[in-house]
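Researcher: Please translate sequence to structure tokens.
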Amino acid sequence: MVKIADIELGDFPLLLAPMEDVSDPPFRAVCKENGADLMYTEFISSEGLIRHAEKSVQKLDIYDYERPIGIQIFGDKIESMRQAAAIAESAEPEIVDINYGCPVKKVACKGAGAGILLDLPKMQQMTDEIVKQVSLPVTVKTRLGWDDSTIKIIEVAKRLQDVGIKALTIHGRTRKQMYKGEANWEFISEVKHHPDIHIPIFGNGDIDSPEKALDYKNRYGVDGIMIGRASIGYPWIFNEIKHFMKTGEHLPAPDMDERVATAKKHLEFSLEWKNERQGIYEMRRHYTNYFRGIPNFKPFRQRLVESENPAELFDLLDQISVEFADAYAMA
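Model: Translation complete:
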């Protein structure tokens, strides 16, 4: 049984990655329904939280059916991060998570996210302050290093464990790699099997199939896997991995009715949780994956990503259900 502090997550938990403008409550709802064991919010700016910025505060929204859930914060100022951790704790998640992995320029080049990997003493001090501030377990998501010449992930893990974090997720790329190339899980495995590391170690990067999940579980010995991009528009991946690990067999792919029903549920919640314009806009990145691989689907896809009318979108989804009813059954 893998545990973060006293939170039981099963024998090999599958985690939903915190993805900006993706891992919101509507998306988390369909991922939880389809087997995600632990989910994290989108990353939230510490400066935004302490200044009560509307967008940052809204990201604190969590729902009982999502539990256990972690709220992830990022920032470059220790005092702001300490205060933000207290605000996050007041939203009553199970976990407070720190982002030391975001590679985007506007975050990392200001010393937040993966940028803090260039200043390990500051990283340790910041983490120590946050752990002392909150009573909830604190976890961290990070990368291997800034670039190939600065990979000190074992030292990072030791420093973070020493100040009291309860689990560490490692994305197997450097900041310089962004999302290019192949994630290097050898470094993740080194951390997991280091004799001084006792907290759960979760691996992240490139897991996009049940076969790969099982292979990496066996090959690298991590305590669980965090899934990010492969879940966008395809929340079924969590249960598919679990079933394959348990039986060695594949679950049937979701048919068209299931894909449409999930897309509609996602859209409904998106419209409800956000304003109409934002709810429609942020759903667009999901449609391609919800209906990936359908021949002659391009005209429908174009209409889905161009429409700004909720009623029209629901009508389109109903048309897709009828027009392509046999698409996946024939695949």
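Researcher: Any highlights?
Model: The mean pLDDT is 95.
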